[in-house]
Amino acid sequence: MLTPAESEALRVSLVVATESVVLSLPLAVGAAWLLVRARFTGRTLLDAVVHLPLVLPPVVVGYLLLVVFGIRGPLGAWLHDSFGIRLAFTTGGAALATAVMSFPLMVRAIRLSLEGVNPGLEEAARTLGAGALDRFVTITLPLMAPGILAGAVTAFAAGLGEFGAVITFASNIPGETRTLPLALYTAIQSPDGNLAAGRLATLSIGLGLAGLVGAEWLARRLRARLGH
Amino acid sequence: MFETQLTVARGTFRLQAEFRAPTPGVIALFGPSGAGKSTLVNAIAGLVPATGRVALDGVPWLDSASGTDWPAERRRIGYVFQDARLFPHLDVAGNLAYGARRAPPAPRYAAHEEIVTLLGLGALLGRRVHQLSGGERQRVALGRALLAQPRLLLLDEPLAAIDAARRDEVLPYLELLRDRFSIPMLYVSHQLDEVLRLATHVVVLAAGGVVASGTPADLSLDAGFRELVGREAVGAVLEAEVAAMEPATGLVSVAVGRGRLRLALPGAQVGTRVRLQVLARDVILATEPPHGLSVRNALEGTLCAIVDEGRDEALAVIDVRGARLLARLTRAAVAELRLRPGLAVWALVKAASLRSHVFAHAKTPGVELAPP
């Protein structure tokens, strides 16, 4: 049904989106917690930095990643020299660029769910003998689950379609960083790529629809469990 | 003995409270809204930072002088909140297990099954929290707190969010805990009837400080307390015991001072401890032994004091030889009967107007108490 190039692009897209979600989920939970529960100077700045990718052109994000994580960038050189990890022009790099771009969406969903958690329930857990980490894992996190799921699904769906930051930081290497949108872009660029472009666009739409329906179904089940 | 001496400063609100109360028993924190009742229990539980000392039977969990300040999760204080605060992602069994799993293994008061049976939770175990009624929620919250093996149970207006009709789904269980397990309890309420039904000691809070502390009987005669409960609820509270049964009439005879009151008290036996509330507006005074009246209860005593109540009324304090009663009179009556301290009087009490609360059977310890 799919050509080898198409299934390769689909595979790269799924890998990149999955890795980006895995990478950003713990950080997004941490950032949401800091923004909702912690009181510290610089909270407004953190809020702004988290949301920056939403308002920046994706090319700028890709460029900044190249500057910092490129082979000669401060973090990129350190990662390469110490651990032999190269991010620029690799699948991992595409996942990093995707993670940064979808981070604000994820934080936003998780933050909303955390704001909905009644701190009184954490107090109740406290009087029952639960310490800080215990309370977070057994009370706060399960009550945030619908928001975490929504954030992860949104970020995954957005990650499937990330274009500008990926092509800037990770380039357009078949089987490595050529995701569905990049393959679509390549097809449009070639004179006889109309049919291929149509097929890839259809594939993207199908994937998006499946994701949305699946997410809604999961969210309903979770909400039913929480009695909403 | 439960001792508290606490200072809490939150913004502009300052709470300074000091009291001692005997344990086991139910210590009621009574006072108007905004008096600082919830702040005080939160400070005792460790949910609000405070300085001072809080100790039960000589063991402190807060003692600023020696630098002791245990975090809330280590204080082992059961807390039943006004809004129950059951965990919505767990079922009833999961909620009950939450505290139990974090408690020391040896039960302090009762085993798991016993508490579940006693509170009537057996049929609810598989239910989700949102399927419970208000009264059921508070019973589950009570069970959850008890299963954490607390050294003290705090109840912050646990009935305030429940319909009046459903309060009897909870109140009898609280009486049962008081009488059967001897768990020290601190009960916050602004409802006098709840306080009189449950408390063995009352601490009155107003504007961030303790204004009175004592047994319900002592406090009922206190001028500040009278002002707080309002005109209609003024009356003496008497601790008494059933002295005899009258099978012919179905009434029981209760010893009050050296006199007797006869009243209907279903389920009582000789020795049953009972708390009577005799409202001042329901007491009639006579200066001669009464006869030919439908009122069956006449207690002989001496007038100790007449307190001016403003308007045209006065409150008479009558010593009925071992107990005191209050009677509200008009000033005209005081003048016409020439009432003055030292005068011998008869206090007439209509049995139907007495409010009674039965406490555990005093003379047969270990008596089988069926769940209500």
Residue runs with pLDDT of under 50 for 5 or more positions of chain B: 361-372
Strand content of chain A: under 5%
**Largest sheet report of chain A:** none
Greatest chain-chain contact: A-B, 21 and 28 residues
Helix content of chain A: over 70%
Structural class of chain A: mainly alpha
Whole-number average pLDDT of chain B?
Answer: 87
Write the layout of secondary structure elements.
The complex is a heterodimer of chains A (228) and B (372).
Chain A: H1 4-37, H2 43-55, H3 58-69, H4 74-83, H5 91-115, H6 119-127, H7 132-160, H8 164-169, H9 180-189, H10 194-226
Helix pairs in contact in A: 1-5, 1-7, 2-5, 3-4, 5-7, 6-7, 7-10, 9-10
Chain B: E1 2-10, E2 13-21, E3 26-30, H1 37-45, E4 51-56, E5 59-63, E6 68-69, H2 72-75, E7 77-80, H3 92-101, H4 112-118, H5 134-147, E8 152-156, H6 171-181, E9 185-189, H7 192-198, E10 201-206, E11 209-214, H8 216-220, H9 223-229, E12 235-246, E13 251-256, E14 259-263, E15 272-279, E16 283-286, E17 297-308, E18 313-319, E19 324-330, H10 331-336, E20 344-349, E21 355-361
Parallel strand pairs in B: 3-9, 3-10, 7-8, 8-9
Antiparallel strand pairs in B: 1-2, 1-4, 4-5, 5-6, 10-11, 12-13, 12-15, 13-14, 15-21, 16-20, 17-18, 17-20, 18-19
Helix pairs in contact in B: 3-5
Describe the structure.
The complex is a heterodimer of chains A (228) and B (372). Chain A is an all-alpha fold and 228 residues long. Chain A has one domain: MetI-like fold (Orthogonal Bundle). Chain A is 79% helix and 0% strand. Chain A is globular and about 70 Å long. The mean pLDDT of chain A is 91. With 372 residues, chain B is of the alpha+beta class. Chain B has 2 domains: 213 residues, P-loop containing nucleotide triphosphate hydrolases (Rossmann fold, 3-Layer(aba) Sandwich), CATH 3.40.50.300; 126 residues, Beta Barrel (OB fold (Dihydrolipoamide Acetyltransferase, E2P)). Chain B has 10 helices and 21 strands. In chain B, strand 18 and strand 19 form a beta hairpin. In chain B, helix 3 packs parallel to helix 5. The C terminus of chain B is likely disordered. The interface between A and B is medium-sized, with 21 and 28 residues.
